[in-house]
Protein: Integrase catalytic domain-containing protein
Organism: Gossypium anomalum
Amino acid sequence: MSDKCFEINWSGDSVHVASTEDTKLWHQRLGHANFRSIAQMASKKMVENFTKSVQSEDVCEVCQIGKQARLPFPANTSWRISTKLELVHSDVCGPMKTESLNGSKYFILFIDDYTRFSWIYFLKHKSEVAQVFVKFKAATEIETGLKLKTIRTDNGTEYTSAQFQALCNKAGVKHQLTNVYTSQQNRVSERKNRSLLDMARCLLFEKKLPKNLWAEVVNTAVYLQNRLPTKALEQKTPFEGWFGFKPSVEHLRVFGCLCYAHIPAVKRDKLSERAQLGILMGYSTVKKGYRILDPLTNKIQNKGEPEATSENLIVDQTEGVENDVDMDLDDEPVRGTRTLIEIYERAHMAQIEPSSFEEAKADEGWRQAKQNADGSLNKLKARLVVKGFSQKYGLDYFETYAPVARLDTIRLIVAYTAHMHWNVYQLDVKSAFLNGILEEEIYVEQPQRFEVPSKKDMVCKLRKALYGLKQAPRAWYARIDTYLLSLDFQRSFSEPTLYIKKNNTETQLVVSLYVYDLLVTGGDEAILTDFKTKMKKMFEMIDLGLMTYFLGMEVSQKQGGIFLKQKSFALKALTKFSILNCKPTPTPTAAGLKLSSQEGHEEGCETTYRSLIGCLLYLTATRLDTCLHKAEELKLKGYTDSDWAGSKDDMKSTSAEAEYVAAASAVNQAIWLRKILANLNLFQEGATEILCDNKSAVAIAKNPVFHGRTKHFDIKLHVIREMEQACEIKLVHCNLEDQIIDILTKGLSVSKFNKSRKLMGVCSMELKEEC
């Protein structure tokens, strides 16, 4: 060593060990085939373009992990046929716990007994076996000019079905079934399944690939094993036995290696990238080329020959001999560094939340979130959030549940307010969770960049709740619940977020709590003002005045009543799904429309479909199941109906049963509403009528006699009888013409739809103020 530099001695001659490395490389390319097969393939020249000398057998760690098995049972010799397609073995493997990229859970193998050539098909359901068998039979018979004579399978229901048997009988194919619990009689298929899965495990484990690529791995294993020697054939591969000529292995590459696929000129401009990075997923049987996985889109495409692959990064080892050559070595180059967030987002792998104050400050997302339409900042706001994900149940927290007002409750309060000719006001508590008082003893680290200089090694004890704590919502609810009760409010037993303040004769104030939003209504302005003053004194809050927007609902409080709509959200949904300029129709659905999952419609995007369903469910916030038509007396009245046999895929219930189930649900809702109205001093005199258009359902409710056709009804459904006897509910039959809620369960004609809408008291806010 001189001047802090090491001298390295090089010799003019070097000894390469490429032969051992070549053996390992071809062992990988051939799907971790055993070394004996590779040596046999080379020595007997069973394939083209393979002249490598194979070294003695080496131990492969991947093979030890993926292929470990018990010692084999003694083999039995058996007679073999002498013609292609005279006997074909078949077996179905699955279901796999993980679906493949195309949603498959099974694969089916067909193995020609004479050549041992294999075909594989992937299935989503076992019921597809018969359809795949027809495809396999047609393809092989056309290719060889021979007829399939016999197929041997196990006793799986997919093979013993009437459909499969009928196909065999029609085609004149003899179907041999193995004896029960005697898989050895179908050992060709069983052994092939095992060898394929052994190879598949090795390919997955070596590159640490996700299990949803199992179909690509098994498909590649079949491709490779058709080109590997088998004991059933002498000096031939299954490929040569089937096609009559030796296969070439020059094109084989290591499965799962990185590669660069050429991008055609028609798909790029002059300044675009000319190659695309991908992962080799095997060999295409449809086109001449490779199957390459795009890691950005997670889709597989058929491409031509990759320009370069990562498997080429195999370095020849050399043995040095001393010499006297001095070498000048440059300093190590200075390399730029990027954070994990930058790397992941640049590669489109993930969106990472900032883990430090510096990363959060450098992120432009917070600035964009606080900008007004003109680009100015709305407000500067930061919030300290604790790492609640590290809390442990029983040590750092116990109970976490905090009730939230139901939409039914919100709509009932609006209906009650309209009936009383009051207004609904809205209060917003600022940083509500910070008001919660903790029952547990919680310690947290000092916030980064805000440590006390002389006490950096100390932690902080929380005196109140902070955002991020699992018990923060419950602590806030307990705090405001205690305070409202101290103001002489009574909490409803049926709705824990509903608080009522009343004197002996009338209700004075009604408060509904939705997390940190308070809806307040009352008839005395002085009492309302006093309540707001006390709340502002205890909690920091904003008086938003009359309720105009709440949970996506636009609220218009007018002299003629209170109107709810979701116009803005509906327009956003129409724009999102590109149907804003669609032609309007007078009814939501066509009359008598019946949907079925079995009809051959074009399959759409699941993500878009789920998003659309979510939007429609959100629009039900203003549905008409709790509404009030302007009247002098507030009399609770209900309607029940069901769309019997509305699904063509599953029509198991009778009309009476379906109506009875719907009626039981309506009774439960009516009992709950009666209790809420009683809390509001609106006691219902007599039983609440629930109108049903099915005489059988009404008869079952009124007649407690045991009947054979109703014995399977759940006991909970008979709440109708109990409430009838208690004079709380009265189930009444109504004519079809008077059943106004058909509008909510069926596709109606225009005239029927308009009639039902009018009877429910629905009108346009833009055209009328009263209805």
Q: What stands out?
A: The chain has 22 helices and 23 strands. The two ends are 99 Å apart (CA to CA).
